[in-house]
Amino acid sequence: MSTFLIYGQNELKGEIEVKGAKNAALKIIPASILSEEPIVIKNLPEIEDINRSLEMAEALGTIVNKDKNQCQIQAKNLNTIELPIGLANKFRASIMFVGPLLARLKEVKFPHPGGCVIGAGSRPIDLFLEGFQAMGAEIKIKNNYYHLKAKELKGCNYFFTTVSVTGTESLMMTAVLAKGTTILKNCAMEPEIKALADYLNEQGAKIKGAGTPVITIEGVDKIRAGVFNIIPDRIETGTFAIMAAATRSNITITHCQPKHIEILLNIFKKVGIKFETGNDWIKIKKNKNIKAYSIKTHEYPGFPTDLQSPYTVLMTQAHGTSLIHETIYDRRLLYTDMLTQMGADIIMCDPHRVVVNGPSKLYGRKLTSPDLRAGISMIIAALIAEGETEINNIYQIDRGYEKIDDRLRALGAKIKRCE
Ligand code: EPZ
Description:
The chain is an alpha+beta fold and 419 residues long.
C-alpha cells in the first residue's frame, strides 16, 4: 500500500491550478451512453475515480480514446446489460451508469455501489430505485444484484424525500429519453447539475430548471453528442484556499470559479482571512490570527460536506471554540480522532457534531486515510504539524486529487510518495 511522508512547517508559496471537477466528470462519462454519437470531454482530471469510470464505460461496450485531460467516448454499440461487480465496487458513482443503460437497453443488472465508507450503512440507493420504478422499471433483487427491466420508460412525477446530488443527476439524465414529461421535485442544486443539463440541452434534450429545486424534462427520442468542458472543481478550490489559510501562506489558486465557493469566502471574511478574487482566481494572503466560526454542512449553496474536514483542520488553528455539525453523512467525522492524536483539542458530541478548541500545536503522526476528503485534510494537518507524518491508504486521496504530491511540492511542501 503506498503512503505519503510529509515534513510539516515548510513555507508554502506560489500558484496552484485547480483541475476539472471530479463530481462533474463522474456524471458526464455515464451520460455519454445516452447518445450513439461520439462525445469529447475536456478538462478531465487525471484521478483514480475517472480511470474506474472510463474502464466501466469500456466494459459496457463504448469506445474510449483518452489522452491526458481529454477523452472521446462513443456508445454506438453497447454489449452488456450488466455492470461488472469488480469495477462497480470500486466507486459509488458506478451507479450513474444504471439510468443511461436502462434508457438505452431497457434492462440493467448491477451490484450495490462501492466507494468510500461514509454514509449510513452502505450508502442507500432507495431514491434511485424509486425513481426508476416511477418511470416504469420492474426491480428484482437476487444475490446482491439489482435487476431492472422496463418495456418502455415513461415520464413521471418524483419527489426526493432526501436531497440527493447523484439521485437528481441520475433521474434527470434518464428522463431525457423517457416518453413524456418528468417533473423532479426537491432536487439538489449543485453547479455540476446545471453544467450537465446545459450540455444535454445543447445536444437536443429538453431540460428546464436545473440548479433549482424543480426540474422538468420533456423526453426526446434521441440526443446528439458534442464537446463537454468540465467546470473547475469547487471542492479542490475550497480545499486549497483552506490549506493556504491554515498554513498561513501566500497562495494563488488559478483556473477556478470563486462564485462556486461563495459561502466559504464569506466565512473567510468573518474569521479574518485576507484574500482577493478575480473571475477565475483567488489569492489567499498570509494571515496572522483567525477567529473560530461554527458551521453546519448543507446542500448547495450551503457549506459543502466535502469541505467539512479541511475546514475542521483550519478550526484547530483558529482562536476560540467552533461547532462543526455534519448534517449530510454519518461517519464523516470519524477522522477527527486522528487530528486529536496529532494534538488537536476536539470533543465528539455525537456522530454528527464535534466541538473544536483552538489554536492547538499539531505533531506528526502515522495516519490512515478513510476517505478522500479526510485524506486531504490529513495532508493539510501534516503541513501544519511539527515533524513527520505518514499517511497510508493514499489510493483514497488519489481518487479525487490529481498528482497532489507533485502539485504541493511545487508550492514548497516537503512531501514524498513511497510505493
Ligand atoms: C455526491 O454524493 C457527491 N459524489 C459527494 O462527494 C458529496 O459529498 C455528496 O453528493 C453531497 O454533496 C458525487 O457526486 C459522485 P447524496 P451522493 O446522494 O450523490 C442520502 C466526494 O467526496 N441518500 O447527495 O452520493 C445519502 O445517504 C463525494 O467527492 C439516500 O438516503 O450524495 C446522504 O445522506 C463524497 N438515498 C444524502 O442522501 C439515496 O438513494 C445525500 O447524499 C441516495 C442518497
